[in-house]
Amino acid sequence: MSPLSPSQALQHLLDGNDRFLSGDLRVQQVTASDLAKHSEHQQPFAIVLTCSDSRVPVERVFDVGLGQIFVVRVAGNIVSPEVLGSIEFGVNVLRAPLVLVMGHSDCGAIRGALNRQHAEMDSE
User: Fold this and answer.
1) Distance CA 69, CA 90 (A)
2) The whole model's pTM is what?
3) Three-class SS of the chain
4) Cα–Cα distance, 95 to 102 (Å, whole number)
5) Cβ(97)–Cβ(4) under 8 Å?
6) CA–CA–CA angle 102, 106, 107 (5° rounding)
7) What pLDDT score was predicted for residue 99?
8) pLDDT higher than 60, residue 121
9) What confidence score (pLDDT) does residue 116 get?
10) Beta carbons of 91 and 47 less than 8 angstroms apart
């Protein structure tokens, strides 16, 4: 994929999400040739920080193929030094022009953190 500007990369994700929502997906499956093509290098056009939730398949949600998005997953989308290091790798080494933080509804990690915070406040 040719280098994109951040706004072009965002538009590419939005267009893919529109296709996902309409059920008009272009990327159907990963083939052996896809695996071989990307085994030596990757050139993602975006980095997506998202939750570890298995119900949110990033590549499907944005209708992209293998090697197009550098996905960083952690419960609750929090940024720790390790997560930040992964994002920095995507920006500085892989040269991805866009970093997107993607949340989802009913996140158990966020709910758990809020419930714990409320419990601690109630016990004071």
Assistant:
1) 10
2) 0.81
3) CCCCCHHHHHHHHHHHHHHHHHCCCCCCCCCHHHHHHCCCCCCCCEEEEECCCCCCCHHHHCCCCCCCEEEEECHHHCCCHHHHHHHHHHHHCCCCCCEEEECCCCCHHHHHHHHHHHHHHHHC
4) 20
5) yes
6) 55
7) 97
8) no
9) 66
10) yes
pLDDT-derived band at 24, boundaries 50, 70, 90? very high
Closest CA to 46 of 81, 72, 83: 72
- 9 vs 49: CA distance, rounded Å: 15
CA distance 98 to 8: 9
C-beta of residue 56 within 8 angstroms of C-beta of residue 104: yes
Closest by CA to 44, choosing from 82, 83, 95, 86, is 95
**DSSP β-bridge partners for residue 99:** 47
Cα(7)–Cα(13) distance, integer angstroms: 10
pLDDT digits (tens, 9 = 90+) for 41-55: 889 999 999 988 888
